[in-house]
Design goal:
The protein is α/β, with parallel strands linked by helices and 264 residues long. It has helices at residues 12-23, 42-47, 59-66, 77-89, 103-115, 128-140, 163-173, 240-252, and strands at residues 2-7, 27-33, 55-56, 70-73, 93-96, 120-122, 146-153, 196-197, 203-208, 214-222, 225-233, 256-258. It folds into two domains: 2-122 and 237-263, Rossmann fold; 128-233, Dihydrodipicolinate Reductase, domain 2, CATH 3.30.360. The chain has eight helices and twelve strands. The structure holds nicotinamide-adenine-dinucleotide. Nicotinamide-adenine-dinucleotide is lined by residues 7-8, 10-14, 33-36, 74-77, 79, 97-100, 123-126, 239.
Length: 264
């Protein structure tokens, strides 16, 4: 049995993780942390029943008493760097879904994970379909010199662009150093009209709108053709296959991994 802790257990994603872990034959929920609902049973919000695991507020205290093999974290961007450092320093493997980590923080985590020989898998997107879209976008980047990304999320998302869009751009940039091939010099009449210029000049456009969960489109253009790929998350269960895949991989391995594509 893989002993799992969930950080952010009462959040929208955390509740799905609690449910998925509870229903997995090879996993046991042993720890749940959140800044709200402290002292309540972690299963009430997600499973409408008691699991015997109570919500705790302090991660280090919870780790030392519950001794999870792996912590799955879906909390909030402003706390995630310190959370990951705490997991690694306490020798606990982690699967990180919380977005908002900066490039230099990811580099530091990679170093820390290696120094402490403690696995950490960070994935900007656990949806297997979205990850396949990233992999296919990378592949298509060999054949197209122009591309832009549109990411569309619900209007309670705190960070922009999405971690998925950033990772997609990074993967595409590995295949092409400049995606603005042949564009004329541009002037923005309203600031931001052309979106954010990211890796290899890939423009990323972020839409925030009630009704969306998480969607992404990548548009490739070349003389005489447009190639568009899109992925839509219809509800949050779409992330759980990827989360369980990551947990099982991390349990058996001891490396730092950034991106679910590396284990698919
Ligand atoms: N990687 C992915 O596939 C993926 C998918 C969806 C969302 N996300 C990311 O996951 C994160 C959470 O998303 P959500 O929609 O579940 O948000 P949410 O606001 O519904 O849930 C966050 C939960 O974490 C708790 N929390 C906040 N700070 C905490 C802390 N320091 N310690 C413990 N608990 C804390 C909150 O009380 C809340 O219950 C966001 O960063 C989001 O962008 C990632």
């Amino acid at each position: 049995m893989i002993k799992i802790g969930v950080a952010g257990a009462l959040g929208k994603m955390g509740k799905e993780v609690v449910r998925a872990v509870y229903n997995a034959d090879d996993m046991e929920l042993v720890m749940a942390v959140d800044i709200s609902g402290v002292g309540t049973d972690a299963g009430l919000a997600s499973l409408s029943k008691n699991t015997g695991v109570l919500i705790e507020s302090d991660i280090e205290t919870a780790i030392s008493s519950k001794k999870p093999d792996i912590i799955v974290d879906f909390t909030q961007p402003k706390d995630i760097y310190s959370h990951v450092c705490t997991y690694i320093k306490n020798g606990v493997k982690s699967v990180i879904g919380t977005t908002g980590l900066k490039d230099e923080e990811i580099e530091n985590i990679k170093k820390l994970s290696k120094e402490n020989n403690t696995a950490c898998l960070i994935a900007p997107n656990f949806s297997t379909g979205a990850v396949l879209l990233m992999m296919f976008a990378k592949q298509a980047s060999k054949y197209f010199k122009n591309a832009e990304i549109i990411e569309l999320h619900h209007n309670q998302k705190k960070d922009a662009p999405s971690g998925t869009a950033i990772k997609t751009a990074q993967m595409m940039a590995e295949e092409n150093p400049d995606f603005m091939y042949g564009n004329c010099p541009e002037t923005e009449l309203i600031q931001g009209a052309r979106g954010a210029k990211s890796y290899s000049n890939i423009h990323i456009h972020s839409v925030r709108m009630p009704g969306y969960i998480a969607s992404q489109e990548v548009i490739f253009g070349a003389s005489g053709q447009i190639f568009k790929m899109a992925h839509h998350s219809m509800d949050r269960t779409c992330y759980m296959d990827g989360v369980l895949l990551a947990i099982r991989y991390v349990f058996d391995n001891n490396e730092f991994i950034y991106g679910l594509d590396n284990i698919m």
